[in-house]
Amino acid sequence: MRISNLEIIEYSERIRLTSRVSWEDCDQPDREVYIETEKSFETDLSLNPDALIVGCLIPAMHFGEKRIVMEAAICPYLKEGIETVMAMMQLWSHGRLKPLDIVAAVKPHDNPDHRKPRAAMVLSGGIDSLATLRLNRRHFPENHPGAIRDGIIIHGFDIGGVVERGMKYPVFDRAKRAMETVAEDSGISLIPVYTNIRHLCDDRSLWLDYFFGAVLAAVGHAFSSRINLLYLASSFDLPNLVPCGSHPLLDPEYASYRLRIRHSHVVLPRMAKLKIVSEWDAAFQNLRVCLANVPDHLNCGKCEKCVRTMLGFVGLGVLDKTRAFVENDVTTDMLLPFKITIRHRPPFYQELLAPLQARGRDDLVTLIEQKLSEKK
User: First vs last Cα of the chain: how many Å apart?
Assistant: First the structure.
C-alpha cells in the first residue's frame, strides 16, 4: 500500500484532509481516503499523516499487503506503537493478519506548541460514550486539562460506513441534532466529522474485532492541532475483555507524542453505565444505540441491540421514562428471535438476570436463561 498526495482541500461546503491510497499486492481499487469537517472547524483540521497511516493499517494487513509506504513523515512514538498493534493483530487473528513493513520517515521533532491542553471524546450517542462524558463531568474540574471540551460525532462509522447501505446523511443529521442537545447540556462543542476510511474494507468481522478503534484514533489525529487527549469509551468491562477493535491494550498504541489516547472506564459493567445515563435526562432522552438507522426514530426498538438496552432499563425500572424508545416495556416475543450466545453477548445478558428478577420479570429471566444455554 502506498499513501500519497496528502493535502487539505475545500470540498463542497466542508474542509477535507485527503490522500491517495494505492495497493501493491492485492487487486483492491485505488481510492481517495478522507477525513472532513465543517468549515467552522477549518483551522482545527490538521495535515497530519499520522491520521492516514493509523486508518489504513488494518485494511492493509487484511488484504495481505507486504508494506505501507507513507510519503510523509510520521511520529516515531506512533511508529513504535504500530509495531505493537501489528503484533497484537497477528496474535488475535491466530496468524491470519501478518505484520507488514512501515516504510516512512519519522518527524525529526514534534514538540507540543504552547496552546492550552484540550481533551475530546468520540460521542456516538451510545451508552458507553454518554456514560464516559457524564463521569468526566463528575470527576474533572471544569478548568482541568483532562476535562472534555469537544465531542466528535462521526459519519462513516455505523451511519454511512457500509457502502451497500448508502450514506444516510438524513439519519446522521438526526443523530447530530440529538447530540447537540447533549453537548449543550454538558458544555462541550460538538464536531461533526465525515470519513470514508471504513470503505477500505466492508468486512463486518474485521470492523468489529480489529478495525473500528483505529478509525476513531485516525479521526483524533486529524484534529491534533486542536486536541492533545482523546477519550475512547470502553466496549467491555475488565472481566469480559475479548479481542476487539477498541481495547485497553490496543487504543493507547495508536497514540503519538502529540496526541494521547485513553480507553475509558473499563472497570464499569454495562448496567452501571445504563444507570449513569438514566440519571442524566439530556442523555436519557437522546441516546442512540440502534444500528438499523431507521428513518423515523433514533432507535428502532426491534433489533437485538435495542431490545438488550431496553431490557437493562426495564431492570432499572425506567424504560417508560425515556423518549429515546417508543416502547415502554419488553415482552418475551421481542427477545425471542435473537441468538444471544454470539459475538461476546452472553455477559451483557447474564448481567441482566438479577435486576430483572428483582423487578418480578421471571418471564424474561426464564427466556434469557434458556437462550444462554443454547450453543453458539
Answer: 37
